[in-house]
Each structure stands twice: as C-alpha cells, then as structure tokens.
Design goal:
By secondary structure, the chain is mostly beta strands. 0% of the residues lie in helices and 46% in strands. The protein has no helices and eleven strands. The strands form two sheets. Strands 2, 4, 5, 6, 9, 10 and 11 form a seven-stranded mixed beta sheet that branches. It has a four-stranded antiparallel beta sheet with strand order 1-3-8-7, with no helix packed on it. A hairpin with a 6-residue loop joins strand 4 and strand 5. The chain is globular, with a radius of gyration of 14 Å. The mean pLDDT is 96.
Length: 128
C-alpha cells in the first residue's frame, strides 16, 4: 500500500510562489507515474500536472503551463510542484496521486481515475 503525504501549502499573495512536496512510503516509487490535482471550493477536482516514472516526461493543464513545474526525486520517494506567478484562481486543495497500474500505456496520465492512491491534500490560498 502506498502512503502519500503532501506538504508546503499556505497563503500567498498573487504573483508569489509556493513549492509543494509529496512524500511516498511505497517501496516501488519509481514504478509509479505521479500526478497533482486540485479542487477549489464548490468545484470538481481537476488535473494539474503529471510526471512519468523516471521523470523524463511531464504534462500540464493549460491553466498552469509555464507557471508550474512538476518534478520527482526517486531516490527520496518525493514529487514536487513548484508554483510560480500564482493567481487567485489557483486557490484550492492540492492532492498528489500515484498511478500504480503497471500496464497502463499512458506515460503521464491526466485522469483522476488513473490514479489509485491519493494524499490527504494541502491547502493553497492565493490572495489578490
């Protein structure tokens, strides 16, 4: 079973930056594609970014492309989301997730149904 714990959320002003981290307890972290999703109040949870097993491929939602960067450190079992130029519309609970299906052909899955394990979430609030 994979345990995921997010950290790094907080309150920042528009234009500021935050770095979210997700620590995984699984022994086979390098076999999982990892993703970040977010859920704003009253809205559905949506895809933010994903990184392939080795970290060699990434995918971003249009809303965050060129502002957010996802990365992973397989030696430390962590995945990070660097968020720059934050906007009020980025306010949400951010979740990291692990895709543990070994046969999936999508290198960087973006659908929440593709991810089997989820962290508890960390709140990001961006003020204007």
């Amino acid at each position: 079973q994979v345990q995921l714990v997010e950290s790094g959320g907080g309150l920042v002003q528009a234009g500021g930056s935050l770095r979210l981290s997700c620590a995984a307890s699984g022994r086979t972290f390098s076999t999982y594609a990892m993703g970040w999703f977010r859920q704003a109040p009253g809205k559905e949870r949506v895809f933010v970014a994903a990184v392939s097993k080795s970290g060699g491929a990434t995918k971003y939602a249009d809303a965050v492309k060129d502002r957010f960067t996802i990365s992973r450190d397989n030696a430390k079992n962590t995945v990070a989301l660097q968020m720059n130029s934050l906007k009020p519309e980025d306010t949400a609970v951010y979740y990291c997730a692990a895709d543990v299906v070994p046969s999936r052909m999508t290198v960087v899955p973006e659908h929440q149904g593709d991810y089997g394990y989820w962290g508890q979430g960390t709140q990001v609030t961006v003020s204007s």
